[in-house]
Records
---
Amino acid sequence: MADYIQVQNYSKSGDLYISRKIFEKIATDAIKNVPGVLLKPRGKAPKNRVSAHLSRPIRISFRKNGRVDVDIDISLIKGAKAEQVCLLIQEEVSNSLLAYTESVPFNINVKVVELEDK
């Protein structure tokens, strides 16, 4: 599996590649902006304000057709609305990827893998 994906370079001044680690960093930073979602189970936010946290690290896959798949597994806190939390994560990650990569097609999969008590 490749560690870089080539980005369409419209200026024809050379080749441009973005690494898997950069996509992971962009997605991780985006999730930090989603209210109530923590990157680690024992974050510093008040428990009553947390709706979910990452269950495992974000996984990035590059497809042969040039698409980037972003897989995010979360643990949802009981009482939080799964559809709303997942949509917020998808939107934030999508906006960040568009801002940084412009022309790279991507697919963002958010999966609730665990339900936790508060």
Note: Strands lie at 4-7, 16-19, 37-38, 52-54, 59-62, 68-77, 106-116.
---
Amino acid sequence: MKLAKLVEEFVTGMGWEDELDTEEEYDTETGYRVISQIPLNIENQIFRLYIDAIEASEWLMITIYPPYRVNEGKYVDACMLFNYFNCFYSYGGRISVEDNGAIRYRQIIDVSETEPSKRLIHNMLVSGIEMFEDNAENIASIALTTKTYEAIREDIEKKAAIQKARTDEKFNRGDAVV
């Protein structure tokens, strides 16, 4: 119950206790598990946040779902884009698409033989929020429009090249902070 109590303290500290929906379950594989569901506002949309305290394995898990799914026929494009994010960007967790089209960001941390803190949960949450904030437009495009993975990658690479040119220009003028 140590992890469940920590999650409860975190939720209370964030002022979310009125929005909290908690479910307790016992699973033969994972043992006792407390799942806390909280609505989370990211980019003016309500996402679903789950904070799991899995006592037997001593895992803390954050899962964030956006309020939309990947349209049928776009799963491969979504998988390719999400794989790109997972390989080339540094977030604590991973983004994926489930068989039913649900988009999921998940981070799991093994806290056995440690003293986990509310700050740890906060950092896990911030990583997920930043992933969605940084990539919201591309995630929505791949999920909800006919735009392909290749077209989105091309857009990403063009924006990166523009940003690199700006940074190089500042550096060459001596304006860059090293």
Note: The chain has a mean pLDDT of 91.
---
Amino acid sequence: MTIDENQTQEQPASPIDDTAPWPRWRVRLSRLSPYTMDIEEQLVRLYELTIMLTIVPGVMGSIILIIFILFGRPDVGAIAVTLIFGPMIGLAWRDYRRINRQARLFLASQTGE
């Protein structure tokens, strides 16, 4: 595949040498890429996204719980909110911790520590 005159080739945001074992890390880092922007900046953005994935379902769950409390069934509301929004929030934080850990390992391997 060739590059036409209208297409441009992206340059990496951080200097990555060709001998780096990037294909081995590609699976581990999933959504992060050293070619778009610095990994630290991507981790900050992922942290902010995880915070929002905690706040928004938390507010929605609170609204649902309040509605169930108003109708006199807080037990059903608490179970519903826990079953619907609990896994969403928990999986977001688990995914963030996993990607953060793998990114730190990748950065450590790049610096030679």
Note: Residues 74-111 form the longest helix (38 residues).
---
Amino acid sequence: MYDIYKRFEERYGFLKKMGVKFEGIQMIDPIKKKHAIVLTRPFLFDCRLLPKRYEGIEIKVRIQGSLPEEFKSIGQNDYIFAPEKFEKFVENNIHNIRNHFGKPEMTKEEILDALAFGNFEDHKRNVLSLMREKQRQARLAAKKVTNR
């Protein structure tokens, strides 16, 4: 497994210049003995540069540092990475983001993909699905309380 990590580091070592830190391989599920290559990255990073898996091992990425104001939590049911927060951040900072990436021609959609874990539309669908499930669970819990 160490060999896989070394190959990953050789292949993606250029990302270190962009602020990515290679944390190593960690066990993420001791029952299934599942491991992941763990990285940390700055918030302003093009996630499209990272694979989801490498030679069969999942890639787990954490964000280092603080998040922009648009991502601050506003309540218990607030999802920190809600799609509308990405959209608001990009609208408020599009010129700075383009300058950061050194790509003045970057479209809003490209920026959203870069920031929202590689594919903004997939992220949006996943969040909506999670929120629906959370609401369903809340309704079931409320129903149990009223049925007692």
Note: The CA atoms of residues 113 and 119 lie 4 Å apart.
